[in-house]
Amino acid sequence: MISADGLSKRYGRREAVSGLGFAVEAGQVCALLGPNGAGKTSTMRMLVGLSRPDAGTARILDEPVGLGARVLRRVGVLIDGPAFVPHMSGMANLKLLWAATGRAWPPPALDDALDLAGLGAAVGRKVKGYSTGMKQRLMLAQALMRAPDVLILDEPANGLDPAEVRALRERLAELARSGAAVLVSSHQLAEVQQLATHIVVMNHGRLVASGPLDELLGGEDAHRVEVDDTARAAAVLRETRSVTAVTVQDGAVLVTAPGLAPDGLVQALVGAGVGVLSVNRASRTLEEVFLTVTDGEDEHAAR
Ligand SMILES: Nc1ncnc2c1ncn2[C@@H]1O[C@H](COP(=O)(O)OP(=O)(O)OP(=O)(O)O)[C@@H](O)[C@H]1O
């Protein structure tokens, strides 16, 4: 539903996005992650036709994207924020933005979108009196009111309080369940871990990791094994069939072994004379994965 193929963008001599490729299918909530300046916003702008790639293609629902492309009517977008007219009410601003689509008022999902925005009577007040969070929620309402098949949201949780973040998460999950493809950028890794089904991680404009969240976190194939001799255990496991990765960390051995049950690991170790104290599932946090694939670059979400 959303695809980037060889997407590249330069600003002067700086290459903001380099040969980026990924896809988001219907039913997926994909989080686009990366340290500050990694190229997330530049990528999203190209995906919705707000800027032209220097190379590569952006497609939505199998159609190439460009400024004013028809397919964009089916996309809910929150990037940089729409320019609300400050002396008009929230509702009048929504009407104005909707008028640009050439379709009759009201939009198909207006009530749900307003519900999520939770502005209540304030939707009738002038936007210039809105707080940052209220403006952000009005922006979300404009992205969601069209009942989009595709959502592309740049840091949608910015300025929202925890209850609002949760409501947003639930709504995005609901939209994905009903067949939408959702791409969100975020710095809030703990939040992303609860929301995303897939992740794409960028660093310095390039793709550094992508795939289903479960797989990237280790899934069922990763184990943490406590033994009496980590060096020997690591050597034995590296020679064991099905084992694809072995690392020693904090006095334990982390093993990835697709298709091998914990019993198999214990047998291999005990058979080689290594004492096994415990074997547990070793899923990593998204923060650990993020810091590993971005070489620990500053990430303000790590707070
Ligand atoms: N219009 C522009 N002109 C010049 N340089 C730009 C422009 N937009 C972005 N850049 C540069 O391109 C790089 C990628 O920026 P981008 O905003 O896409 O990153 P980001 O991952 O969204 O960052 P953040 O998480 O801080 O929002 C940065 O080095 C940025 O300074």
From TrEMBL:
UniProt KW Transport keyword: yes
Signal peptide (from-to): none
Keyword Calcium: no
Entry-linked Pfam families: ABC_tran (PF00005)
Keywords for this protein: ATP-binding, Nucleotide-binding, Transport
SMART domains: AAA
ABC transporter domain sequence ranges: 2-229
InterPro entries the UniProt entry points to: AAA+_ATPase, ABC_transporter-like_ATP-bd, P-loop_NTPase
Entries under PROSITE patterns matching the protein: ABC_TRANSPORTER_2
Family to which this protein belongs: Belongs to the ABC transporter superfamily.
Name this polypeptide is given: ABC transporter domain-containing protein
Phylogenetic lineage: Bacteria, Bacillati, Actinomycetota, Actinomycetes, Streptosporangiales
